[in-house]
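Incident review: delayed structure delivery

Summary: a single-chain prediction request sat in the queue longer than the usual turnaround. Root cause was a stuck worker, restarted by the on-call engineer. No data loss occurred. The affected request and its eventual output are reproduced below so the record is complete for anyone auditing the incident later.

Affected input:
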Amino acid sequence: MTQQTLAARSAAAVITAICGFGAPTAYAEEPFIGDDNTVVIPASRFKEESVRLPTNITVISKEDIERSNATQIAQLLKRVAGIQVSSVSGKTTVSMRGISAEQASNNVLIQVDGRRLNYTDIAAPDLESVLVADIERIEIIQGAASTLYGDQAVAGVINIITHSGKSKESSANLVGGSYGTIQGNLNLNHALSQDWSFLLSANYLETDNYRDHNEREQSQLGLKFHYLTERSDWLFELNTNNEDLNTPGALLESDLDQPTQSRPEFANDYVNTQQGVLRVFGQETIDDNWQYAIDVNYLDSDIESINSFVGFPTTTVNTTDRKQWSIYPRIKGQWQADSGSIDWINGLDYDHAEYAFSLLGRGNEQVVKSVYSQLFVPVSQHTDLELAARYARVEDDLVDFTVYPTGIKLKNTATAYDLGASHQFDKRSKGYVRFSKNYRFAKVDEQSYTADGVVGLDPQTGDSLEVGYEQTLSYGFVKFSGYQLELDDEIFFDPAATPPPGAFFPGANVNGGRSERLGFIADYQADISPKLTSGINYHYVDAEIKQGEPSSQGNTIPGVSEHTINGWFDWQIDKVANWYLEVNYRGSRYQEGDVANALPKIESHVILSSAINWRWHQLTLGIRVDNLLDKEYIDYAQFGGYYPANGRNGYAKLSYRF
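Output delivered after worker restart:
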């Protein structure tokens, strides 16, 4: 493949992707159970009994985070069954259920305290803008969840829950390590009165990163006010994130003998981001049967960047401006019956986004309105039935210098529904089954670069079927789940499609027929002794293009590894120290976008990482080394452009709680 072809075929995806930018414990693979035997799921912002949720849920707790000594969300998610993590120029992409990294930002929904991290364009959610030190826990809901979450919740939902301000504990952290990394952050909690408290968080980071010309500098500041009484729960939040990042670009295969280098054409490339977030959340108990809640979110993101391609350097400065705001009111009714609790949740979602990208003279104003309802009915004391449905409508007011210079208005609608059941066999085991109808709407980049003669893309729709079984053992637990995910009119970039008139490069975004993903997840954890806990999980997925262009029909979906295995153990050495060891295997896969399965595969790899922590009262010293054996491998590749993964790297973290 020539350099020109590589640059042309990569342009559509790369332009926007770059612009986005005590006793031993283990990951709580079962739902997080509180003192009242409930689990808080940000889908509804209401407490729901964990045994009633007919789906596979993994919870990473605050203690799990501390014992692994992680400082990045990618480190935490790599060990979760069914998740595949990729990195491009220091930015993380998370895929689930046989969805490729290229499509993950459109089909995996990521939320922070109920606020969508996904953008109105195809840029990946900026996970690096979320501080690990701020995280209370992470909830991963496997499988389609369009009914409660709406657009983009096709393969799953990752809910990141940060400290609310009601905690009485403050902390300070200092990190130093490989690549000249220096990081310091502070979380200061203070009670203003019996009902009011506030949380001030600050962070500063400098790092050169693994590759040349990949320096990063980031500063963040956040403030939360929390009001909590027996009947009221209100949170007011403001945070800012400023980041300067140099981007090293892709390498050709001939460059991989020096994986840390950056090609000369990327010498001027960078992405500078300024982002501000405002959020208000409130929940009120009306009476014994009714509660209501509301979320109001606002995001203002301004990006300046230079984006070159292999063989095509540029010094043109581009700007990307995003403004997104949303309002999510909902109400919950609950009534006690002889067989259990009847729960009924109803809500409205309103999302408004404005987007402008200077390079292509592209702008869009998108409005999404939807209404949903979820009902839990106890069929018996051991069996619950879930019924849920959503109706959504999207309107795009789109302008593109090349394709729609005078503008165009596009409208679409979509529906989703769930039918699920869970059965508690005994106190230690349960089974569940769930059928879901899911959808996603095309994003602004996709709508503005369609095949010749195509005006607007149809919504992508799909069916998801999941069956699972979970059992708590006297020495751990075991979980099994199988799934089938079928997508119709799947939206993706096809390099073989006829581009629109005036296009800069070949290919176009298309509704690509039908694809199918059949998968199986096994997850096992064992408490080997009072001081040693270990676990292993395995994910198999057969991802296939069922209907589409003749050249791709029957091929494997690119970017998806058929086999993924994770293993770990956590040893409490003595009263003050624990040792954590983790191994990750990811199987081979075709390069992103290679629907023809014609390019060389990305080889499989095994990575070993380890951490050790010492605790003295309020002080903790942790050391972590990732890629312990210094394995050279490719984290992401697209159309012959390669992004090498980090070599062996480590850091020390000093934490103080007060």
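Verification: The CA atoms of residues 56 and 493 lie 30 Å apart.
Action items: add queue-age alerting; document worker restart procedure.
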